[in-house]
Design goal:
The longest helix has 38 residues, at 2-39. With 331 residues, this protein is of the alpha/beta class. α2 (58-65) runs parallel beside α5, α5 (107-120) runs parallel beside α11 and α9 runs parallel beside α12. Strands 2-1-3-4-5 form a five-stranded parallel sheet. The protein has 15 helices and five strands.
Length: 331
Amino acid sequence: MTSDLTIFSLRISLRFYVVTVMCLIGLLCSGFVGLNYALNDFGLWRDHAMPNQLYGDPLTAKYLLSQRAIPLHFDSLLIGPSVSANVDVGNIASLEMYNLSVQGTNILRIRPTLEAFLENNKRPGTLVFCLYPYFTNNLKLVPSRAYDDPERSALFSTIPLHAYLSRAGRYFSGEAAYDKSSRGMIDISEVRKDHRPPYAEFAKKQDKKIAALIAQPAFTPHDKIIDPEAYKALAEVIESARLKGYRIVAYYYPLNYRDFTIRQLNGEWPYFQQEMNKLFLDRDVVLDFNTSAYDDIRKSETAYMDNHLNRLGADRFAEVLDDALARLNQR
């Protein structure tokens, strides 16, 4: 009898434990979802100031923001891969522009985000495309639940939690968050790459590549420079934007002069420019920042961390881009 009572008691205790744990999990999940809805970080349910937190998944974050928040605040975009992701468009006064660029993406990966903006924005402005070979490489679109159900994805997203933890960590470490403009630099990795070696070390490697190409010319196959699927996608989104009334502006990213020399010697840059130019009409604007007029950036030993502009170089380039866009607005 005592044994039966003990077994019964254990069963009751186990059931109580399981039910308690399940209830606690349910409460935590409900609280998490409720907090995401209340904070409304992506601005999906009501008006919300643009966030300047540092998100851990910028591609998903910008896709969710493009549903409502970005179109509500901005009519123009800067679009590109990592080489344009650290351009602080808050320093560009000539346009109400948001930086949609994301590190590690090409046009195929960023296309859903761009198309979400084009669909939800009712004030066509200017789209500025950063032209750089990585943007038309062969990376494929990575499936995301956010593309199928943005609201549900936002409710269960851990991106805001990551943002607040990141901000808290940086606050207590005494390191201020860089981005104050709320114009697109969401991932801290886009604006700081302190783990990379000094530019002088990178420059030595580039000089060796130049010497090797001069001694023994080698050309990059065309299909390695531009992926046909990516090229087609870029052509389609540009045409779609034109039909919606957007002004199309594109610029060739200012390569540091060593990288420019390498890409000229291996035939990559001439072919890339030739094919990119075919995408644009006479009424579009294509800017080339790889001329001697911009040598103060391209030949600077302090403007790059590798092929990417560093903070100093990106801020200087933002001024140059703003000046070019301002002159276009005067036409």
